[in-house]
Write a sequence for this structure.
């Protein structure tokens, strides 16, 4: 049984739910065949989230980690390509911190690529009938912070671990009166099942055009 | 048992599914308590669609008719406010017709309002946790054509009938590799159940701000 | 010299400028050859705006009236096709009024079509290198209110007058820190010159596909 | 007189103009006070564009280089934060090449940050009344390729040089019949003047919240 760690986030920005945690919980309750799925719910707070992530990795000793966060406004599930070494918060995090332009890791490289087969993951989600794409930016808030921290942990301490970040749309109940795209938690959970199954079983990523013109 | 007629459309524009028919079928297979739900699948063709609608109304003798169509690009379920007396086709319909600026009904009024309680319907969909809003335009293609034809039928021949039009988003499987909003058929069906239940049971629409600045 | 009346609006909703008035002023300062251009700046208030419009029409005795309003979020200049008999305000107007679902004119028809050659106007704007399209809805706020009131005035009292409504994007200076489309006042003024020149000189509108699928 | 090199691109993807070159040409024809502005028009082709850029840098020996490209769909001027070491082409370039997932520079770091004061540049554009923001991704096509190549040149051979990349919206004439945001070349040129003036005169970037949630 391959061991997978999935993380989601606490609600933030006034929402009562966070679709990342909704979906992660559904996957844990009904994991894909052959996988042992652990979960952790991270605080939406710089620093704290990374401590929680490290503790969860130590506890679960996974082969694959997929961190999941909300990307309100995106219509499909997006698999992130790259984490950058910047904390630049447009709004305060849930601890009231608002870092501007400092690094995630002092002295760390400018960026890390995901060590998941991101294109194979996108293809698997689409094969399940769910919109998906590669994203070229995870932003500069707590999601990117967690993604960079995970990648740095892998690069410096756990070379056998593979990991990445997936952004998911709003849940429908978050936007009942706003013109924003959304997908139900059950749909997003199905996408995550496809992603973790693919991540565990794929050695070499597929070659396909998933870039962005700009 | 109140009698409701729901209509959807055949696929068009190269799609293999039409989310309107997917959702309507699900409602018919599992109708809301107290309602008898008939369905009709209309051609996406000027003229023909209205003949099919009239035949379905004659057959079902409903108290409420809700016609449903795809509005690719809209993120939520929209209840249409007004049908206008124009056929102005940006693309050919499935019969190859492309009328430009002629009327739906020669000599008919410029427009009809829906005779559904549109704001109560929107409120009911939102209460089910699904994004919804009032739309101020059903376009100028076959959807508006059907909506206007239905309203004209009600105005001129069936004053006791109430009817309107609901636009629904793409289904996820239609847009797996495109950045377009979507909702699964099961979610849209739940929205339609809320709409028909509300339409049958609501005499006077609620007053709420669902207008558009422009 | 053909007489044209152009109207714009006072700023509303917290903006310090209204791009409709900016552009209208530029046209009046440098009118197209052969046209006498009068202007009026309307209040963004239900009722009052229509009184001001009527007074301006009486004063200018124009052959063509084009009312212009801001449509924040639209990327191009849009020529409106239809005005509907509804006041349904999402936000209060500048007088603090927020009508919900009452008519513009008690007992008036559900809608009026513009009496401008809307497709020829769109073609003329595009020929000037500026994005333009036909719009199927002017909303349900003061813009639609003015458009309907103008159309009703034409239909009931001034059959020789022709008139319509044009929505214009934000001015760049309104959205310097928001991801919203905009066009400079000079560009919008050029579009309005093309529209009024076309409206005055075109008897029969062109036939072209400018409809909307939904 | 400080020496600035501005680059734009040849048209691509079927367009007859490229707004980056339009704007760069206007700046060269009417440069800001105190600056000597050189220009180069780069091919929209992997590899070739970087050779042309290197030649232009050698020729102009500038203190600041700002490469400019089209970002169709973006409503404002965006100053790029980071270039990544990936060529991943969604469409072929003008030479027919379509690299998938190879690096820009074999063995180069995952990413480089711009060495311009990006936030001061954004603030200067806004102060000129023009929409602007920091962008967290320059894509994975030729624009990112040029930006990465420039940053690599600076890092490895020209440490005194400062450089970055600016993405600009469509020109209005490119999208006359499409619902896409645009800004006229004169407006974009004014933004570029603000950027190069700021880049030359600003030692330390300002601290301001220009990050992205995702």
């Amino acid at each position: 049984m391959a061991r997978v760690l999935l993380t989601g986030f606490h609600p933030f920005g006034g929402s009562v739910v966070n679709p990342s945690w909704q979906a992660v919980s559904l996957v844990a309750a009904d994991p894909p065949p052959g996988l042992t799925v652990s979960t952790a719910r991270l605080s939406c707070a710089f620093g704290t989230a990374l401590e929680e992530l490290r503790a969860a990795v130590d506890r679960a000793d996974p082969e694959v980690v997929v961190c999941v966060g909300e990307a309100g406004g995106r219509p499909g599930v997006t698999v992130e390509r790259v984490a950058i070494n910047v904390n630049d918060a447009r709004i305060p995090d849930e601890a009231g911190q608002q870092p501007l332009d400092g690094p995630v890791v002092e002295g760390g490289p400018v960026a890390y690529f995901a060590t998941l087969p991101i294109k194979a993951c996108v293809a698997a989600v689409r094969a399940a009938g769910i919109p998906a794409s590669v994203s070229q930016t995870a932003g500069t808030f707590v999601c990117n912070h967690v993604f960079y921290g995970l990648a740095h942990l892998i690069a410096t301490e756990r070379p056998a671990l593979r990991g990445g970040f997936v952004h998911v749309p709003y849940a429908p109940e978050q936007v009942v009166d706003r013109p924003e795209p959304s997908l139900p938690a059950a749909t997003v959970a199905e996408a995550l099942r496809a992603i973790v199954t693919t991540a565990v079983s794929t050695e070499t990523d597929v070659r396909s055009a998933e870039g962005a013109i700009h």
